[in-house]
Specification:
The chain is built from eight helices and 14 strands. By secondary structure, it is an alpha+beta fold.
Length: 275
């Protein structure tokens, strides 16, 4: 049963995510091959199976919208730039964690409207944890498919803060963190978009990402984090936005739980100090 504030659409997307997770686990529990895409990133049968489930599910909704997905050919910018609403999907975020079989991978489905994520679902197939949010409906977590939903929220920044970090991409950004939050902080490595979810449920404070990510890596979790009270900002302090140019790569960014902190001023001061 969904929380009373859930729209029908958010319920439907949550169900699609759980269906995709089932397809992923069928592969995860067996032997699987790892192939390489043109950019040398890994892909498995689980990525493709989840892609098929999600695209089929979205096609059954009352309103059919365009879809951008990691596992599908991206349409040219001349077509995409006219889109006001579309789905942004990562069928299996954290393929490297999937290959390591550590459980730290997710299904990400986001609705983008006017360049902003207004609905997001993040599901961890192995644990069954599902995070769901839509603008004005709050951010929610379900521990597994049979558990009750509970509303989640970020926390005031702890002292010392807890920094969520990438499991597979090392400590990029460590030089900037002391300038933003001081030298005294603890680190919590985790794979995929689950790092955002740590912040959204008040279990961590900051996630700084230096280096390349794609828009489908962040959109669903950004919707959850923002509705929980946090923010995802580029390193000039502006909210992360989507489908605003030809490239689907994100700028470097920081995700924060405590949006009352003047992060823009801190980022500006750090940039001035670095230059």
């Amino acid at each position: 049963m969904s929380p009373p504030t859930f729209s029908t659409l958010l319920q439907q997307i949550s169900t699609i995510a759980r269906d995709a997770a089932e397809a992923i686990l069928l592969v995860y529990r067996d032997d699987f091959e790892v192939q390489r895409k043109d950019d040398h990133s890994p892909v498995t049968a689980a990525d493709l199976a989840a892609q098929q489930v999600i695209v089929a599910g979205l096609a059954q909704l009352d309103t059919v919208l365009p879809v951008i997905s990691e596992e599908a050919r991206t349409l040219p910018w001349l077509q995409r730039r006219e889109w006001r609403r579309y789905w942004l999907v990562d069928p299996l975020d954290g393929t490297r964690e999937f290959i390591k079989r550590n459980g730290e991978f997710t299904v990400n489905i986001a609705l983008i409207e006017d360049h902003q994520p207004v609905l997001g679902v993040v599901l961890a197939p192995v644990t069954g944890e599902l995070y769901a949010a839509a603008r004005g409906q709050g951010a929610w977590m379900q521990q597994d498919a049979h558990a009750a939903w509970r509303r989640i929220a970020t926390r005031a920044m702890a002292q010392p803060p807890t920094v969520a970090g990438s499991r597979s991409h090392g400590g990029a950004g460590a030089a900037l963190l002391p300038q933003l939050i001081g030298d005294d902080y603890s680190s919590m490595p985790l794979g995929s978009s689950l790092k955002f979810c740590l912040l959204a449920r008040g279990a961590a404070d900051v996630y700084l990402r230096r280096g390349a990510t794609s828009e489908w890596d962040t959109a669903a979790a950004q919707a959850v984090l923002e509705e929980a009270g946090g923010a995802v900002l580029d390193l000039t302090g502006e909210p992360l936005r989507y489908n605003g140019r030809d490239s689907l790569l994100n700028p470097e960014f920081i995700a924060v739980g405590d949006a009352s902190v003047d992060w823009k001023a801190r980022l500006l001061a750090a940039d001035m100090e670095a230059s």
